[in-house]
Write a structure and sequence with these properties.
Layout (H helix, E strand, L loop, with lengths): L10 H5 L13 H5 L4 H10 L2 E4 L7 E4 L2 H9 L4 E2 L25 H9 L5 H20 L7 E2 H18 L7 H11 L10 H23 L7 H7 L10 H14 L2 H16 L1 H9 L4 H12 L4 E6 L3 E3 L2 E3 L4 E5 H4 L35 H18 E6 L4 E2 L8 E3 L1 E6 L2
Parallel strand pairs: 2-8
Antiparallel strand pairs: 1-2, 3-5, 4-12, 5-8, 6-7, 9-12, 10-11
Length: 419
């Protein structure tokens, strides 16, 4: 079994690594599904860390691949705007779902401030016991000694239960949140839908359901769920009159509350199986869990990139970026930058600077739910270690076919009980 490659890959795409940098299509979905992208980014970091691609399926764009350059772009929101979208794919003009992550100042801070209380320290403290109870229940329901899909039974189930709580969404319908999250981050290339129109219809169904929830919450007393916060927020209570903006913020909150945690839960299991000495280290010292969580998020990098658009000419790494240019910050590359992370391709659970990763971004757009994601991961591993000697990967992982979300559809595992 090859845990490092999980898809059949056209040899021609692998051979492209030896070509000139301008001839390489490192955005191709097949490379990402096969987890074969790291040599491309290593070469970019070494040979052309601020690299211009003049022609691609996404149009021309700059690739920023080194840690410090990524950090410089991410923190400079006066020059690098989010308003034209946050992924390498341009937002369709007839389906523009604006959200505060794709807004510049001052609008960004105004909307973000409204929903931030859901992840404030007091609320997180109240959620910890809920997460622990649910994680324990999920783990206790798993078959020991039998093969099953960890992604579906654990990663998706735990994060979807948490999402339902944050939205106060009907619990028995919580898997709809998973579907809408996947729909928001992927289209035809993922196989989830056959046409862009089908994707739009699915997202509009999400809007319809949440519009009903908005009216329920707006007519009731203010609550601690995200929809109530938006419906009663002084600066967001009229968002219902801008449905595409409401949908954009919904999908942002759904994806943000789901993908980082879900794919890091799966990625952590895979990584510990790829690096068994680290698993031994963890079993010998459970106090390493908090640092390991940060290292898993670095190693996995659940969202591979973020996009900005230059508002003015700017020199970066000796290259001249022009006003209007698309700039892609490849977080997945920054997290493997050997100048920052020694032996960066390895999972090292006691890595001293593990928390220094770029997975959550920097500046005004730093992930709002990063503490919640870390808490869920910490709790699930604390509960795993109480119950099982090992979560063993027993088959090839099936990765999502996406160059944005670094996720998993299948991870076959077998549980080994404590002796």
């Amino acid at each position: 079994m090859n845990l490092y490659r999980s898809a059949n890959l056209d040899q021609a795409k692998v051979d492209a690594y030896g070509k000139e940098l301008d001839a390489q299509d490192f955005t191709h979905w097949d490379l990402w599904q096969a987890d074969a992208i790291y040599p491309y980014f290593e070469r970019l970091r070494n040979e052309d860390p601020v690299h211009y691609t003049p022609e691609s399926r996404y149009g021309p764009f700059w690739s920023v691949t080194r840690f410090e350059d990524i950090k410089a772009v991410d923190k400079n929101n006066e020059v690098f705007s989010s308003a034209s979208g946050i992924s390498i794919i341009d937002t369709p003009v007839d389906f523009d779902t604006a959200s505060f992550i794709a807004m510049d100042q001052p609008q960004h801070d105004v909307q973000r401030k409204t929903v931030t209380p859901v992840v404030a320290p007091r609320n997180l403290a109240a959620l910890e016991s809920v997460i622990r109870q649910r994680a324990g229940d999920i783990l206790d329901s798993l078959p020991v000694g039998e093969t099953f899909n960890w992604v579906d039974r654990v990663s998706i189930e735990l994060t979807t239960q948490m999402l339902a709580t944050l939205f106060d969404f009907p619990f028995e319908e919580r898997r709809r949140l998973t579907y809408w999250s996947d729909l928001a981050t992927g289209g035809r290339e993922t196989g989830l839908v056959k046409t862009n129109q089908e994707r739009r219809e699915g997202l509009l169904e999400c809007l319809k359901v949440f519009t009903g929830l908005w009216h329920e919450r707006a007519n009731g007393e203010p609550g601690n769920d995200l929809i109530s916060m938006l419906a009663h927020g002084e600066t967001t209570r009229d968002m219902i009159n801008r449905p595409m903006e409401y949908l954009g913020n919904l999908t942002l909150l759904i994806v943000g509350g789901n993908d980082t945690t879900r794919n890091s839960i799966s990625g952590g299991v895979l990584a510990l199986n790829q690096f068994p000495r680290e698993y031994d280290k963890l079993r010998a010292d459970h106090s390493l869990v908090p640092n390991m969580v940060a290292e898993i998020i670095r190693w996995q990098t659940p969202l591979s990139h973020m996009r900005r658009t230059a508002l003015s000419d700017y020199e970066l790494g000796g290259k001249q970026i022009r006003k209007g240019d698309k700039v892609i910050m490849w977080y997945v590359s920054g997290n493997r930058d050997e100048s920052v992370f020694t032996d960066a391709d390895r999972l090292i659970i006691d890595r001293r600077n593990a928390r220094n990763h770029v997975s959550f971004g920097f500046g005004i757009h730093r992930c709002m739910g990063n503490r919640l994601a870390e808490m869920q991961l910490r709790i699930v591993w604390e509960e795993i270690l109480k119950r099982f000697d090992k979560v063993e990967v027993v088959g090839e992982p099936q990765r999502v076919r996406s160059n944005f979300v670094r996720g998993y559809a299948q991870l076959p595992v077998k549980l080994h009980p404590l002796n």
